[in-house]
Every structure is written in C-alpha cells, then in structure tokens.
Amino acid sequence: MIEEALALLRQNHYKVTKQRRALLTYLSQFEQQYVDVTAVDEYMHRLFPGMSHNTIYRNIKEFSELGIIETQTRVHGMCVKYQCDFKHTHHHHFICRQCGRVIEVEVCPADLIGDQLPGCQLEGHRFEVYGLCAQCAHRADKS
Predict the structure, then answer these.
(1) Directed axis angle between helix 3-11 and helix 18-27, to 10°?
(2) Residue 91 and residue 9: Cα distance in Å, rounded?
(3) Residue 92: strand, helix, or coil
(4) Which residue segments constitute the domains of the chain, with CATH numbers given?
C-alpha cells in the first residue's frame, strides 16, 4: 500500500527514512477518513520521542505537495488523509458528518462552473459535500 508513496518520495529525491516510512504506514490507515494533524504528531512522538514537531509538520507538508496525502482545514485545525489514488489526484469528496467517512466524488463541479464564467481563468477550487453516509443515515432512520 505504501510502496507507491515510497517510490514517489524516491522519484522526488527524498530520503526514505524510518521516520518517513513509519509516518506513511500510520497515515495509510486513514484512506477513508481524515485524522487530526495533532493525532499524527502525538503518534510520531510516541514512536520517535526525539523527533521535533517541525520535522513532523514539514514531512506532512511535503507529503501534501507530492500528492501522497490530502489536507483539509477544519474549525479545530488541520486534518489529513492518505491519498486514495495516486494516478488521479484531482478528485472531490463526500464527508459524513457523523462518522467522518470519506467517499470520493467522481464529478468535478469546476467543469460546470467554468462554462458559466466566459473569459475567466479558473486557478483552483475545492469541493466537498457533507451529510450522512448510507450507514449513518440508516442508523438515524432506525432511531
């Protein structure tokens, strides 16, 4: 699972250290939901007590820039999730507000919006849909 990410690091001339490998292994558990960066930091400090916060956050930033992880800013801080598809990094999400599950949305709204903005040059966008996943909606209906 993390072999593609390790290959991407090597291709971009990053050393594959035991700390980076451990960070990737931990993050790879979060393909279907986001995890708070503070939880990532705490986990890495338990494994590597001498590792600085700056090193952890720098690695997270580098992983994000390489497309290994995705980031999201929430009210309580930044969250990250492991990239689910290295070949198609441009995608959008449905995020369950109950359990935090992330489901990939294949349609890109920028394709529709671009047609409504003649002469404009779109430089970026972010699209997320929130609600209850099928399991949480089913549980809510039963209660």
Answers:
(1) 130
(2) 21
(3) strand
(4) 3-82 (1.10.10.10), 92-142 (3.30.1490.190)
C-alpha distances in angstroms, 42 versus 27, 36, 73, 119, 126? 13, 10, 18, 48, 28
pLDDT at position 117 is: 86
Give 112: exposed, middle or buried? Use CB within 10 Å, 0-12, 13-18, 19+.
exposed
- Number of CB atoms found within 10 A of residue 105's CB: 14
Mean pLDDT of the 101-128 span: 80
User: pTM of the predicted model, to two decimals?
Assistant: 0.72
Neighbours of 91 (CB within 10 A): 15
Q: What is the pLDDT of residues 64-88, one digit of tens each?
A: 999 899 888 887 888 999 986 656 5
| Whether residue 94 has pLDDT greater than 70 | yes
Q: How far apart are CA 110 and CA 112, in angstroms?
A: 5
